[in-house]
Amino acid sequence: MALKDRLEEDRSSSERTGRNTVGHWRARLLEEINLDELAALSMTQRRARLEKVTGLLITREGPVLAAGERANLIRRVVDEALGLGVLEPLLADPSVTEIMVNGPDHVFVERAGRVQRLENGFASEDQLYQTIDRIVAQVNRRVDESSPMVDARLPTGERVNVIIPPLSLIGPILTIRRFPRAYTIEQLTAMGSMDPATGMLLASFVRARLNIVISGGTGTGKTTMLNALSAFVPEWERIVTIEDSAELQLKQEHVIPLESRPPNIEGKGQITIRDLVRNALRMRPDRIIVGEVRGGETLDMLQAMNTGHDGSLVTVHANSVEDTIYRLQTLASMSDVKLPFEAIRDQINSAVDVIVQLSRGPDGTRRITEVAVVASRNREAFALRSVMHFKSRPIGPDRVVRGDFQPHALPKDLANRLFHAGESMPPVFGVSDDPAEIREVS
Predict the structure, then answer these.
(1) 284-339 pLDDT, tens digit each
(2) Looking at the structure, do residues 191 and 174 belong to the same domain, yes or no?
(3) What gap in Å lies between CA 228 and CA 189, rounded to an integer?
(4) How many structural domains compose the chain?
(5) Count of C-beta atoms within a 10 Å radius of residue 151
(6) CB atoms within 10 A of CB 254
(7) Residue 79: band (very low, low, confident or very high) from pLDDT cuts 50, 70, 90
(8) Lowest mean pLDDT: which of 184-198, 256-270, 359-373?
(9) Secretion signal: which residues (predicted)?
(10) N or C end: fewer C-beta atoms under 10 angstroms in the chain?
(11) What pLDDT is attached to residue 359?
(12) How many angstroms separate the CA atoms of 11 and 339, rounded?
């Protein structure tokens, strides 16, 4: 049975809605208004009109409520009629970075890196299914028993994942990841994500056209860091961005954003990140920025870095700089071009210059925990050299992470590369070719 059919059947059951529920007043509102007249109004005018009509209905037919309760009921009824119901105030709250709905009664949000449960949930499972139906219909998708998983995106950019029974055993699950706010390096420094010297060094790396991989776990701020570093790409360069869901907000004039496309209802028409990376090479890019590599497109990205597209930026899921190296190798091996690990290792050694590792602390803060340079070349075994790492202190009773960003000397060849590119580096780093500072990745 399709989702819409199930909803219509459920709505016909009178026991599902009480007289004073949001669903009841929404039904009365739809009976009262003229939909043709409403369609001619702007969204702001529609909301004002519906709020006025709902207020009159509650005054005429509803219970006596306090001013605050009455205003809250009107808002919820209009949100349900126009938008996404109980999700609307959460989407309007800039402090909310993630919304997680585990069935109609369990709604969680993430604020400042910490997950909190909300008291208000959906009135019923029907209401949650209706909200899901509205979301997926916007991208011409459907979700039902035959297609119980779907990825979508709200018009405002938020990424949405839906999974329903029979795959979910606790009812429909809805996860919304907010569109990341664009921060500058200066703002991230003020928030404690890095120290000023590291920010200046990373800016020099970008302007000197070093290939940079930004790694970290889920929710550590990889896209936010990628967006901040992209601000240092010169205005005159042609930039191609490739993402699953367009989140980057580059300020340069010559930017070509590309977005992958999932298959349609018939399972056709899919355009993958790999397809877009290959096509980007034919678009004469000065730089390629990939939101995230997670499969065979990694090999195409490495080859692009090795064929004149210096200064490319990419993110990858990994828990440390060492894990990043091997994850890139594993992902590149997933390509349909079967290369031995040794050949892929050579590609990584030649392509990747710098790895920026991000982590999220127990207190929810996101920061750079290490900046490492790939010290190996060509057929050498993987070797890394740390140029900055965050040394945390023991966590106290307040559970706040404190520590120091500790700089290390840059290898001489990297310092020379910055010099020839006309870039300076903060004096706190220095230059050294001491082999003791290089650690092999085994």
Answers:
(1) 999 999 988 988 889 989 988 888 788 999 999 999 999 999 999 999 998 877 88
(2) no
(3) 11
(4) 3
(5) 15
(6) 15
(7) low
(8) 256-270
(9) none
(10) C
(11) 94
(12) 57
Boundary-marking domain end, from 145, 179, 213: 179
Give the CATH number, domain containing residue 432: 3.40.50.300
- Beta strands at 439-440 and 255-259: parallel, antiparallel or unpaired: unpaired
Q: How many distinct helices (H) and strands (E) make up the chain?
A: 15, 16
Query: What confidence tier does 255 reach under pLDDT thresholds 50, 70, 90?
Result: very high
The total of other beta-carbon atoms located within 10 Å of residue 81's CB is 21
Q: Do 116 and 10 have their domain in common?
A: no
Residue pair 137/152 in contact (Cβ under 8 Å)? The answer is no
pTM, rounded to two decimals: 0.77
Lowest mean pLDDT among 84-93, 274-283, 400-409: 84-93
The DSSP secondary structure of 11-22, one letter per residue, reads: HT-GGG--TTSH
Q: What's the one-letter identity of residue 413? A: D
Q: Which residue has the tokens 């990419």?
A: 314
Residue 306: CB atoms within 10 Å = 17
Q: Are strands 239-243 and 255-259 parallel, antiparallel or unpaired?
A: parallel
Q: Which two tokens stand for residue 393?
A: 């202190």
Give the pairing of strands 383-392 and 439-440. antiparallel
Q: Which domain holds residue 302?
A: 185-440
What is the Cα 299 distance to its own chain's centre?
23
Q: What CATH number did the domain enclosing 158 receive?
A: 3.30.450.370
Range of weakest confidence among 21-35, 355-369, 386-400: 21-35
> 102-119 burial, b for 16+ CB within 10 Å, e for fewer?
bbbeebebbeebeeeeee
Rounded Cα gap, residues 231 and 245, in angstroms: 20
CA torsion angle 23 26 28 32 (round to 10)? -170
Rounded Cα–Cα distance for residues 3 and 402 (Å)? 50
CB 378 within 8 A of CB 401: no
With tokens 């190798």, the residue in question is 329
Helices 297-305 + 341-351 axis angle, to 10 = 50
pLDDT over threshold 90, residue 11: no
Q: Would you mind telling me the total number of residues written for the chain in this entry?
A: 442
230 and 322, same structural domain?
yes
